[in-house]
Amino acid sequence: MQLRTLNDVFLNATSRGGERAILTQAGDQWQPVSCNALYWRTRRLAAWLQQHGVSKGDRVVLIAENRWEWAVVDFACLAMGAVDVPMFPTLTPDQTAAQMKDSGARIAFVSNAELAAKVQKTGVIETIVVMDHEAGGIGIPFAGIVAGDETDARDADFTAQIASVQPEDIATIIYTSGTTGDAKGVMLTHGNIASNLTATTDLFRFGHEDLMVSFLPLSHVTARHIDYLFYAENVTLAYVGRAERVLPAMAVVKPTIFVAVPRVYERVRQSAEGKALKAGGLKAKIFQWAIKTGGKHRDKVAQANGQPSSLAWKLANKLVYSKLAEAFGGRVKVFVAGGAPLGIDLARWFADAGIPIFEGYGLTETSPVIAVNLPGRNKLGTIGPQLTNIEVRFAEDGELEVRGPSIFPGYWNKPEATADVFDGDWFKTGDVGKVDDEGFLYITDRKRELIKTVAGKFIAPQPIENKLKVSSLIGFAALQGDKRKYITAIVSPNFAVLEDWAKGQGIATADRAALIRDPKVVARYQQEFDRVNKEASPWEKVKRFRLVPEEWTVESGEMTPSLKLKRRIVAAKYTGEIEALYSGADTE
Asked: Is residue 407 in a domain?
């Protein structure tokens, strides 16, 4: 499918008359939003924006969880050539104010009264529109703006306005999550994103019979790209705004496509292994046998070339794999991971459990997809072959550089930062990698996150951290060791699993600080480090670790909204613990 601007996505998504484009949840019920409804609500909102002084190039802030109103605001801005600026609802008031001020927006759309109050207190925004508006609340009710008839007719003036938007026009400004520095506004044009979508629409071949649960935050480029892709492909989107509602939603709507960041897959694995461990006895042995059996058929499963014919595999599928598939609703035919490295161990485990995951890779600045694995061409541990519209090369230090029509024009209001990431027209990704003889790309780590020991050894932390997170006992691990003699780790436990295990050992769990100091607990975690260290080179071995009593979350600041580790925040928060690991004043 050839797409010129993102408005082609909107026109395609609303061209099917009365068919459903969206499923939205109201209490326990799922209600359809028709293509006509999506069209006319977008049309009315675009007219309202014009009446309130928004014109081509003006910025509009959007702060909301995934919901049909998000799509309407987005499509309305795109249709009139305005620039939407999505922001994560979890940002602090100071972060929200800074991004809104930097963007120069005057109007903000927010999902609820709490966010409306946060935006109002900043004093930056003139007009606030609230999706969940309460009588007497702050802002203008969204429902009143978009209400009206939803017929098959189309508005000629609106069609002309849509057609006037050009590929070089800025479509959106997405602020980076700040894992390696201060947040920057990434400008993406209609042509940037449209060219990336054009290169990905035919890779998996979806259609109107397919359905996807949209739950990854739409303020992140990965979720945004996926939703556009499926609108273009006539796939129905079921919006889920809260993480805890995802599994119940999948059980009801039964998606055929599942796209998630690696952390979601990690949690599914940890849950499955935790249940098997807790069940013990025969059930635990069957689970372990099934995973081992799946390992013998990993390559066939990974390629999605049908089920293995082995009787043992079919029995394992009936007893174990099918139960795991049911956790995703039982109908998913394509699983995709993006937004962060999946990790070879996690990819292998799911293939062994009958589920092939197709890992992709990209950045906000690349609109986002650079490479992705495909059915029949899926090599575990890689990010797949590059897209056809992208050129790649590697610098002398191994940094991946790319160029093509989907590469962004620059950072908003930051010409020096823009110049820093370009070598001519080649964008420097900041990721270190390689390509093999079959054209599969590998990403080994982020260039800025490489640890250099005093001995001059460079160590990539993410592969080691991913191996550690294979354990259901480990929530997150953050390796330390830059300019040090050896590698250490700060570990945030998966307390749900740890506390279950501790109860079985007769260890009190009421006090987490005491729990993580218990010698039996420390010894149990040492086993996980021994497992990882066994396969590591001498300089990659983790010599010491420290458990901490906090679970790292987006809200507490250690994780980005896309569930990536904020190393600088962790290092600053646990300065004392890290120093103790190197002073010898603390136990291993």
From this structure: yes
Of 21-30, 194-203, 386-395, 552-561, the poorest mean pLDDT is in 552-561
Cβ–Cβ under 8 Å, residues 488 and 582: yes
Q: What does the alpha-carbon distance between residue 454 and residue 482 come to, in Å, rounded to a whole number? A: 8
CA atoms within a 13 Å half-sphere pointing along the CA-CB vector of 265: 30
User: 409 and 550 share a domain?
Assistant: no
Q: Which domain holds residue 89?
A: 6-194
Report pTM. 0.85
Percent residues over pLDDT 70 in the chain: 98
Spatial contact of 211 and 257, defined as CB atoms under 8 Å apart: yes
Q: Are residues 482 and 403 in the same domain?
A: no
- What's the pLDDT score for residue 137? 87
Beta carbons of 440 and 358 less than 8 angstroms apart = no
pLDDT at 463 over 90: no
| C-alpha span between 144 and 148 (Å, rounded) | 9
Q: Angle 158-3-370 (CA atoms, 0-180°, nearest 5)?
A: 135
Residue 514 CB: number of other CB atoms within 10 A? Answer: 13
**Phi-psi domain of 302 (left: phi exceeds 0; alpha: psi -120 through 50; beta: other):** alpha
* 178 pLDDT higher than 60: no
Instruction: For residues 522 and 416, state if they share a domain.
Output: no
514 and 574 fall within a common domain: yes
Domain of 570, CATH number, reads 3.30.300.30
